[in-house]
Amino acid sequence: MAGLKIEGITHDWGARRALDTVTLAVEPGRFCALLGPNGAGKSTLFGLLTRLFVPQSGRIEVAGHDLAREPRAALTQMGVVFQSSTLDLDLTVRRNLLYFAALHGLSGKDAEHRAMAALERLGMAERAGERAGALNGGHRRRMEIARALIHRPKVLLLDEPTVGLDAASRAAIVSHVHDLATDGLTVLWATHLVDEVHADDRLAILHRGRILADGEAGVIGGDNLSTRFLSMTKEAA
Ligand SMILES: Nc1ncnc2c1ncn2[C@@H]1O[C@H](COP(=O)(O)OP(=O)(O)OP(=O)(O)O)[C@@H](O)[C@H]1O
Fold first, then answer.
1. CA distances to 64, 77, 158, 185 from 155, in Å
2. What is the pLDDT of residues 94-126, one digit of tens each?
3. Closest C-alpha residue for ligand 1 atom 1
4. How much is the ipTM here?
5. How far is the CA of 39 from the centre of ligand 1 (A)?
6. Of 50, 65, 107, 133, whose CA is between 20 and 30 Å from 76?
7. Is the pTM of this model over 0.90?
């Protein structure tokens, strides 16, 4: 499958089981929200998906490539936006993107073209010449998402990308990333905020390392996803 496949992933931190046989398959071009309260295991899963560490059992496939057996091919198809920002605030937006392009072996006109195209997709093209440090939090985040797209990945992972942003900035980013999925990108969006999930999104609810629900958000949530999410994570607490 060209999307993202997570099969039977288990991971322990010492005596603590952070992930317990987590299985999730996200179809190509789908926005999947990974919704979980604090400590659910979202960041641990992202660490495994990005190969910061390896799972103790289970397997991961990115755009058809097994992460353990073909790590380079799998990681090439992956764009990542981590929870903490990793921008160089002294550089312009454009320069930040070009440095990242160079890390992917891209340079010259090709890199320039890709940087501008990625910024355009996030509605940031007119800010290309501004210093990253002069941007507000929402624009910095959009710039990081643009940067994650520069090597044209098929799968985009975002770990709580709206933390610390105001409501308008959050809404803009949520909307931009949904548009990316509509254009064909496979998206895994980790969050603990129910209002970032659209009714027709794919939704996986993670709590204490286990997937409690997996399906269409509107179906799982019924009339009120917030209430449903609270009751599910409370029941299992
Ligand atoms: N490096 C680590 N060493 C030991 N325990 C860890 C480590 N990282 C996470 N944990 C534990 O694993 C569990 C899952 O944590 P994780 O950070 O993956 O959850 P999360 O859903 O990302 O939470 P948050 O929303 O608070 O970031 C928690 O009990 C946490 O304390």
1. 11, 6, 10, 6
2. 999 999 999 999 989 999 999 999 999 999 999
3. 13
4. 0.95
5. 5
6. 133
7. yes
